[in-house]
Amino acid sequence: MSIVIVLACLLTVSSANAxxxxxxxxxxxxxxxxxxxxxxxxxxxxxxxxxxxxxxxFQQALYQWxxxxxxxxxxxxxxxxxxxxxxxxxxxxxxxxxxxxADYASLYARVCQEAGITAYTVNGYCLENGTLAPTGAHDWxxxxxxxxxxxxxxxxxxxxxxxxxxxxxxxWEWFQVSxxxxxxxxxxxxxxxxLLTNPVRHDEVxxxxxxxxxFNYNDTINKYLRLPxxxxxxxxxxRIERYGGAANPFVMAELxxxxxxxxxxxGNREIEERNRLVDQFNVANADYAGLVKGYNEYVxxxxxxFLPEKPDMTVRKMMxxxxxxAEDLSRRxxxxxxxxxAMVDHLRELGAAVEEMRGRIRTEDQFVSRYLKxxxxxxxxxxxxxxxxxx
Length: 391
What we know:
By secondary structure, the protein is an alpha+beta fold. It folds into two domains: about 15-190, C8orf32 fold (Roll), CATH 3.10.620; about 270-390. It is about 50% helix and about 10% strand. Strands 3, 4, 5, 6 and 9 form a five-stranded antiparallel β-sheet that branches. The protein has a two-stranded parallel ribbon with strand order 1-2. This is Transglutaminase-like superfamily protein. InterPro entries: CAP/Cytokinesis_protein, Papain-like_cys_pep_sf, Transglutaminase-like. It comes from Chitinophaga jiangningensis.
């Protein structure tokens, strides 16, 4: 998720807690993660897997550790950052013990992922008293335990920010919140991540709305996760536009970033596709040269009236190999489509040459079949007949 607004990822201020969802009850005893295993998400996940008895206990311990060991980075919230949840960034967060909401969410999701728990960071904006919160874009986590999705916000679980002051205070109000409750305060940019069959539109936030068409978020997420980055972002862009579009400054900024990124990725993909086509063409061109070489060797052998004599099976295999090469090359070229005039011309020229060679090979294949069906004592005459027919 992009971080495109400088005043982004703020913790909720103290006065905003009045409408927070009902607190989720933590386990009676939450295991404490020792400092010795907090050098990397992988180390934390490994230790938690060994020292907790369930995914629930694992996540409670992780939530508590992040809330009590990572301080909110007040200076960092005013700095524009273009990173994603890279390993290097998370290492820095664990070393410095400070971060903004993207860091809190990414760390929580990564530790879960390292343990095989389905978790993803989500980017969006927040509401206060049913209206747009002025704090900017925000990041949180969605987690799937079995068939059940929940929303966890480790940033809001760590404390509050009032102006330039961070007050640490562990609370469990935003641990494993149901999607139906979470959407009252957290609105993902991509409606898919609301995890609702009837997502809130961006232009209907805070107002009563009528039920819309059912949205199968599980199927959409499963498909999304199988796609490469370009298709993922293009799909997110389309869904945001379909569900209210640029209804507020935060969505507008996200749409601008998505459009620019999709445009760049589309251009890169065109370049990659052309380079791939050039590579395929070069291979086909080399294979055509090999086909011509093989055909010329056959013609030389035929001009010597198949002498020195070879077993019939060898002659048949020689011709079958040429036929197979020609047919394969023809199919591959038919599947290549040029994206510019120069490549179109190259493909047309090579395609014409291959088809001409296919015709010659087809004719010789018929000759070989006739040759092999003829009694050996009469085969020599076939060469003279063939010369006469061609003349």
